[in-house]
C-alpha cells in the first residue's frame, strides 16, 4: 500500500508522543493533572446552552446548512466586529463561518500556496499553522520569536531569497504559546511589509478577549482598513468555553474569503444550525461572562506563578492567554520533550514541551491554566518533588 508523500510530514508529532506518555502514566497508577491542552474547563454560559437546546426541537435545523442559511450568524459577526473595532464589515462577502478557526487556518494555504511556495510562520507557533502548509505542498520559513524582541518577529531579517518565494505570513497575537501581545504599530508594519512583498497576511485571533489588562487587543484589519491583503480568524473556544462545539469564523479580504469558501465547499457543509444560533447568543449577551472568565484565569495565573516562585522556579506572569510560558531550569534547558515525558510519568503532571511548537521553543515548557487553584497548587507540589529528586 502506497501513501502520498505529503503524509511523511506528519509521521512524528510531539503531542502524540505526549499523549502516549499520559496514557503510560495512567496505566502506571498516576493521578493525572493535565495542564498540556488549552481546552477551557469552565462551563458554557446558560443562555448559550438554552438557545442550542431550544434548537433541538426545531425541525428546520435538521438539514444540511449551506452558506446562505448562515446569514443571521454572519450578520451577528459583522455587528460584533464593528462594535469591537469600529470598522464596518460586509457579512455577505467578508465573513465565513468555520468549524473552529483551526479549520480555516489549516485550509487557507490550499487556496494560496502552490507546491514549493513558502509560508512565513512564527517559531514557536501553533502546530496546525504548519500542518496546513504541508497539506498544500508548501515550504515553511520559521520567523524566530525571541524574548529579547518581546516575542515579535523581526521582519527585516527575513532573507530576500525567501521573500521571492513567499506567498503568505501567519501571525497570532495574543500568542500561543509565548503569551506575548503585539501593538497596533506592529500590525501596521506587518501590513506594509506584506503589501510590499505581495504576501497574504493571516492573523489567528483566538485570544482576542483573553487579556488581563485594560489594554484592548488590535485586529489586523485596523492596520489594513482597505482589506488589501489580510484575513483574520476567530473562535468561540476560548472566550465562551465552546471548544467542543467547533464554531469560529474568518473575516477580511473578500477575495480571500471567497477562495477559502471554495475550499470549504468540497470539504464540508456547515455545522448544526443550533450551534450557530448559540454562537449568536454568545456574541449578543456574552460580555459579562467573558469578564468572569478572565477573573478566574487571572487568579489562576497569580496562584500558579506565586507557588512556582516558592519552589525556586521564577517565571514571568503573562498579560494574556490561558498559559504560562516557562523557561526550563537546568539541567533540562535543552530537553523540553524529555522533561515533559518524565514529569508526567513520575508525577502525573502533564505539560507541553516548547520544542513541540518549533525549534525556537526549545528551552521552554507551556502550562495551561485549565484547573482550579487547589489543583494547580497540587501540581506545583508534584513538580517540586520532581525537580528536587
Q: Which class of the largest domain in CATH terms?
A: Alpha Beta
Strand content: 5-15%
Low-pLDDT sequence parts: none
CATH architecture tag of the largest domain: 3-Layer(aba) Sandwich
Q: Span between N and C termini?
A: 48 Å
Task: Find the count of extended strands (DSSP E, 2+ residues).
Answer: 12
How are strands sequenced across the largest beta sheet?
2-8-7-6-5-3-4
How many structural domains in the coordinates? 2
Main β-sheet: number of strands, strand sense, barrel status?
7 strands, mixed
**Outline type:** globular
Mean pLDDT: 95
CATH topology of the largest domain: Aspartate Aminotransferase, domain 2
Structural class assignment = alpha/beta
List the helices and strands in order.
HEHHEHEHEHEHEEEHHHEHEEEH
Helical fraction: 25-40%
User: How much is the radius of gyration in Å?
Assistant: 21 Å
Number of helices: 12
CATH homologous superfamily designation of the largest domain: Type I PLP-dependent aspartate aminotransferase-like (Major domain)
Amino acid at each position: 500500500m502506497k501513501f502520498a508523500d505529503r503524509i511523511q510530514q506528519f509521521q512524528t508529532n510531539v503531542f502524540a508522543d505526549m499523549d502516549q506518555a499520559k496514557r503510560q502514566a495512567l496505566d502506571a497508577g498516576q493521578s493525572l493533572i493535565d495542564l498540556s491542552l488549552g481546552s477551557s474547563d469552565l462551563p458554557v454560559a446558560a443562555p448559550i446552552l438554552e438557545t442550542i437546546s431550544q434548537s433541538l426541537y426545531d425541525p428546520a435545523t435538521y438539514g444540511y446548512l449551506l452558506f446562505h442559511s448562515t446569514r443571521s450568524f454572519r450578520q451577528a459577526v459583522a455587528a460584533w466586529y464593528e462594535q469591537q473595532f469600529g470598522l464596518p464589515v460586509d457579512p455577505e462577502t467578508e465573513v465565513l463561518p468555520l468549524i473552529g478557526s483551526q479549520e480555516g487556518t489549516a485550509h487557507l494555504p490550499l487556496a494560496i500556496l502552490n507546491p514549493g511556495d513558502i509560508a512565513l510562520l512564527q517559531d514557536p507557533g501553533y502546530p496546525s499553522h504548519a500542518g496546513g502548509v504541508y497539506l498544500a505542498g508548501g515550504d515553511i520559513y520559521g520567523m524566530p520569536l525571541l524574548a529579547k524582541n518581546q516575542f515579535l518577529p523581526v521582519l527585516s531579517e527575513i532573507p530576500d531569497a525567501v521573500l521571492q518565494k513567499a506567498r503568505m505570513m501567519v501571525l497570532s497575537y495574543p500568542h500561543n504559546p509565548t503569551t506575548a501581545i503585539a501593538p497596533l504599530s506592529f500590525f501596521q508594519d506587518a501590513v506594509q511589509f506584506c503589501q510590499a512583498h505581495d504576501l497574504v497576511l493571516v492573523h489567528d485571533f483566538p485570544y482576542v478577549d483573553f487579556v488581563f489588562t485594560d489594554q484592548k487587543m488590535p485586529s489586523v484589519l485596523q492596520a489594513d482598513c482597505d482589506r488589501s491583503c489580510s484575513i483574520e480568524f476567530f473562535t468561540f473556544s476560548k472566550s465562551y468555553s465552546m471548544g467542543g462545539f467547533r464554531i469560529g469564523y474568518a473575516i477580511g479580504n473578500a477575495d480571500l474569503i471567497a477562495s477559502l469558501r471554495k475550499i470549504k465547499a468540497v470539504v464540508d457543509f456547515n455545522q448544526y444550525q443550533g450551534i450557530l444560533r448559540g454562537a449568536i447568543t454568545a456574541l449578543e449577551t456574552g460580555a459579562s461572562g467573558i469578564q468572569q472568565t478572565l477573573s478566574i484565569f487571572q487568579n489562576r495565573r497569580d496562584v500558579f506563578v506565586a507557588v512556582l516562585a516558592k519552589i525556586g522556579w521564577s517565571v514571568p506572569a503573562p498579560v494574556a492567554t490561558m498559559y504560562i510560558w516557562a523557561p526550563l531550569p537546568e539541567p533540562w534547558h535543552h530537553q523540553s520533550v524529555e522533561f515533559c515525558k518524565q514529569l508526567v510519568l513520575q508525577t502525573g503532571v502533564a505539560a507541553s514541551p516548547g520544542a513541540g511548537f518549533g525549534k525556537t521553543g526549545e528551552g521552554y515548557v507551556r502550562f495551561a491554566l485549565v484547573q482550579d487553584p487547589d489543583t494547580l497548587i497540587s501540581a506545583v507540589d508534584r513538580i517540586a518533588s520532581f525537580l528536587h529528586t
